[in-house]
Amino acid sequence: MIRSVILGSGAAKPRTVVTNADLAAKVGTSDEWIQQRTGIQQRYIAEPDETTASLGEAAARAAMDDAGVTVDDIDLIILATSTPNNTFPATAVNIQNRLGMKHGAAFDLQAVCSGFVYAVTTADTFIKSGQAKRVLVIGAETFSRILDWEDRTTCVLFGDGAGAVVLEAQEGVGLSNDRGVLTSHLRSDGSHREKLYVDGGPSTTQTVGHLRMQGREVFKHAVAMITDVIEAAFEATGLTAEDIDWFIPHQANRRIIDASAKKLKIASDKVVLTVNQHGNTSAASIPLAINTAVKDGRLKEGDLVLLEAMGGGFTWGAVLVRW
Questions:
Q1: Where do you find CATH 3.40.47.10 in the chain?
Q2: Which one is catalytic: 192, 210, 250, 278?
């Protein structure tokens, strides 16, 4: 059978680092308050000349270099983002143009923090159907542009950045030791909209709006929803938490990550954590964490990796992939 194998990864971060101390000087908060509740120590904030497209382009180029491919080898670009450069055209098309790519197709996918999981699943579907041989999947965000900087409960949580991977069609035998995406499971429930949303949009307010979140409500639902899709992934493959080499969750909150790993009985030394360095970068958080684990040598060929995320809407999902 055809498997979608990850050939390489890349990342891009804005130039400017904003520490908790920097934020404390501007809003009513403190380093201790932020770290105790989230585990975040710093985040990257885009300068005016840095956009979702420019960060996404840089991450894409790094991923292609790591994979040993060029833009001529790419059939499709999928960009997961909630902060596009424009309402339209899709920022993926902008990135396609910046890369000098004249062939194939490109589109944006919007599932907020679950965007990268949704995008990998979509890329896997294109590859397995034979519609694409190589897909560039990017998660890129400039969430700083939709934050209310007077709301300390949300503005301290998020940051900007981009990450990308290249997936390629390769033959597998259909067993769990194949390289590539083994299974993926997506969910959504729109009844939770008010718990995490942006209060603007072209069709309603004709403005961009600001992010609004009921933090306690999100936390209350997060662990159960994450567990649901991960258990579905285990059931589909016959694998268990003990088989996992690396758990790479959406980097939203250290407490959610710890609680999820504990409930699933995944050892803490198997969890890849970058939330302390990047904050919550929404759809960019998983590929940023993947790239960190690749570059520091933890993530190696043959490792079994569990990806999961939950985002506004709510959306949530999980992917099991053999590196």
A1: 2-171, 180-322
A2: 250
